[in-house]
Amino acid sequence: MCGICGIINLTLEPVAHRERIDRMSARLEHRGPDSHGKFEAPHLALAIRRLSIIDLQTGDQPLSSETGDVTLVFNGEIYNYQELRQELVRRGHRFKTKSDGEVIVHLYEDQGPDFVQALNGMFAIALWDDRAKRLVLARDRAGEKPLYYWHRDHTLVFASEIKALFEYPGIGRSLDTDAVAQYFFYGYFPAPRSIYAEIKKLPAAHRLVAERGQITIEPFWRLRDHLRPPGRPRVNRSEEQGLQAELRERLRQAALSRLVSDVPLGVFLSGGIDSSLIVATMSELTPGNVNTFSVAFQEKTFNEEPHADLIARHFLTRHHVLKVDAQALREALLSLACHLDEPIGDPAVVPTFLLSRFARTHIKVALSGEGSDELFGGYPTYLGAQLAEYYLRLPRFLRRGVLGRLARFLPVSSGAVPMGLFLRRFLAEIERDPAERHLVWFGMFSPAELDQLLLPARSGAAPPATRIFSPLARVLEGARFEGTLAEVLYLDFRTYLEDNLLVKIDRASMACSLELRAPFLDHRLVEFAAALPAALKVRHFQLKHILKKTVEEWLPRKTVYRQKRGFSVPIAQWMRQDLRPLLEENLGEERLKRQGLFNASFVRRLLNEHWSGQADHRKGLWTLLCFQLWYDRWAKC
Questions:
Q1: What pLDDT does residue 387 have?
Q2: Nearest of 348, 453, 336, 434 to residue 391 by alpha carbon
Q3: Nearest Cα to Cα of residue 623 among 344, 360, 350
Q4: pLDDT(420) > 90
Q5: Share of the chain above pLDDT 90, in %
Q6: Cα(624)–Cα(301) distance, integer angstroms
Q7: How far is Cα 124 from Cα 204, in angstroms, rounded to an integer?
Q8: What local confidence, expressed as pLDDT, does residue 205 receive?
Q9: Final residue in a domain of this structure, among 167, 187, 221
Q10: Quick check: is 437 in a domain?
Q11: Overall domain count for the chain
């Protein structure tokens, strides 16, 4: 796990400000504190900060081919590197190291830019081919590792994090107004946008090739190619049992492949089915020798430690518990503001950061359960997708009459699963297109609220709500689905997972120099899961049906069938108490008026309603708070 950066003049003339590569690299030291290296030519500079995980002695980068014509820096891990290495040796390649990175170099020599299709792993790659005068950048299929870039005239600058790009002169910090509107809807920035107008991110599963003065960006893998086609017959009981057996083996292989390491590993354990499954698989290999880590909250409705403790005792792990309160959350939030060069509206980034910092004192690599919910149907909103189909069959007068008025009487809750908030949005947005409806249910601010929040002068000519759904065209293009549930599962994998969850765990863990791996994102498992019938994922309003049936023999039944909560944080109540001064400081009317971005009176109304208990505005207020903390640290520099 590392941080990479580079500068190139696409016409192969001497690149301006090449000496800035050292300052760019220094900004990424937290991603790789163990060693650093660079490669320079008149037209090019590449640099890396390395976190040593595999081949501690000889695996430093940059890595080059025998002839020196191909040079690589990369961030991530290649889990099938040993198999690839054996095949390359049979083909006559000679290796100088035992690292996974050198495999990439030789694989490129064999296959050219298509080398990336053979890789099973998480990666952001920068590879220079001196003979072809070609630069290749690539990101892994799910988007576990980040890569941002800036391009003007003949200069291309790239880095693992935006903060490194700003060490190169001339890169502006003007905000992308469409991206800002999208942030307050999604809570993150859908690719390829960043919060800055001049900076883009390479989308997941894409490759950028720069040669002969031109840049080409194209996908090398598409999830849509693996979806179950519409119109296929239903799976019978015998076929379902066969799929469960195959899934069981694929889950085991995905988890075991993520254990390759020359340093200690552990698991982030919530006590839910996903992380518990990883513990079960690791325990097969090293029984009684697995390190597990979890977070404990004082608030009972959020505290999942009893469930984690059940799994830890069941598998006899070395269990470590971090207790978190509102003060720890506040301190971590302020610390994260220095690391997050884009705001993230997901509150779970804070306990992820705290848990990463805690775990780093024991281990260097942790495994986590990201991806399972999007692949197998784990979110309550998927139940909403099913309910919507039934609801829309009711007569229109009934939907708009009695049931519509019920929304006003739904209770306000501060619990981990705010059903009142969800049901109000469900009823208010039910008539929308299924993909838009799903995004609104997940969203931080509703489209109507968004138009009240952002001031017109800063949000462009069109109202914000008219621009928030533009990422849908890119994401859904060319995809065909067997039904609404399959569509929203695909949508979440391509947006919520790629641009929120994986960004969250990357920034939170790498801020602590900890590598985080996600076994569920093994692309072979992803492709298998995508081809499963949606009816096997959510059946009779039971989430993750096939996954639960598959792992019954591995886990306690209480773990398999308990209600999902996710990595929830008790921010609703904390914002009424311990965090209230922080909200007052950052969302005060005078400050907002000076800033000129937000409707101060609308924000004050949200605060008053939340503080009084009239409404639950946790999502919107948290998204605003995170933006303000980011704005103070980064936008005004």
A1: 82
A2: 434
A3: 344
A4: no
A5: 75
A6: 25
A7: 9
A8: 98
A9: 221
A10: no
A11: 3
Residue 307 lies inside a defined structural domain of this protein: yes
3-state SS class at 404: helix
Mean pLDDT of the chain: 91
Kindly tell me if the per-residue pLDDT of 403 is higher than 70.
no
Strand (E) or helix (H) holding 48: strand 44-50
Cβ within 8 Å of residue 344, ≥6 positions away: 187, 188, 500, 503, 504, 507, 626
Q: Are strands 35-41 and 2-9 parallel, antiparallel or unpaired?
A: unpaired
Give yes or no for residue 406 having a pLDDT over 70: no
How many CB atoms are closer than 10 A to CB 485?
22
Residues 231, 214 share a domain: no
Cα(193)–Cα(576) distance, integer angstroms: 34
pLDDT at site 141? 98
- Both 522 and 577 in a single domain? no
From residue 475, how far is each of 190, 282, 440, 529, 613 by CA, in Å?
A: 10, 35, 16, 19, 38
What mean pLDDT comes out for the span 177-200? 96
Q: How far is CA 587 from CA 423, 584, 593, 618, 622, in A?
A: 28, 5, 10, 14, 11
Residue 416 lies in a domain: no
At 264, list the tokens. Answer: 């200690």
Query: Is 577 found in the same domain as 541?
Result: no
Amino acid (one-letter) located at 282: M
Q: Are strands 200-201 and 148-152 parallel, antiparallel or unpaired?
A: antiparallel
Token pair for residue 239? Answer: 């076929």
Query: For the stretch 121-130, what's the b/e string if a residue is b when 16 or more beta carbons lie within 10 angstroms of its beta carbon?
Result: bbbbbbbbbe
Q: Within 13 A of 182's CA, how many CA atoms are on the CB side?
A: 25
Length of the chain in terms of residues written: 637
Instruction: Give residue-wise pLDDT tens across range 42-92.
Output: 999 999 999 888 766 767 889 999 888 999 999 999 999 999 999 999 999
Q: Looking at the structure, tell me whether residues 536 and 628 fall in a common domain.
A: no
Phi, psi of 603 (to 5 degrees): -65, -40
519 pLDDT above the threshold of 90:
yes
What distance in Å separates the CA atoms of residue 7 and residue 503, rounded to the nearest whole number? 23
Spatial strand order in the sheet of 206-211? 63-64, 70-78, 121-129, 134-139, 206-211, 214-219
Supply the residues annotated as catalytic: 2
In a shared domain, residues 14 and 142: yes
Beta strands 155-159 and 2-9 are antiparallel
Whether residue 107 contacts residue 118, with contact meaning beta carbons closer than 8 Å, is answered with yes
Instruction: Specify whether 271 is located in the same domain as 291.
Output: yes
User: Helix (H, G, I), strand (E, B), or coil: what is residue 522?
Assistant: coil
CATH number at residue 127: 3.60.20.10
Residue 504 and residue 604 in one domain: no
Does 160 share its domain with 308? no
- Of these ranges, 237-246, 415-424, 434-443, the one predicted with the greatest mean pLDDT is 237-246
Confidence of residue 456 (pLDDT cuts 50, 70, 90): confident
- 227: closest CA among 594, 526, 607? 526
DSSP code, position 228: P
Residue 402 has pLDDT above 80, yes or no: no
* Residue 305, pLDDT score: 84
CA distance 101 to 271: 34
Instruction: Say how far apart CA 533 and CA 556 lie, in whole Å.
Output: 26
Average pLDDT over residues 250-276: 92
Domain carrying residue 233: 225-376+487-560
Contacts (Cβ under 8 Å, ≥6 apart) of 398: none
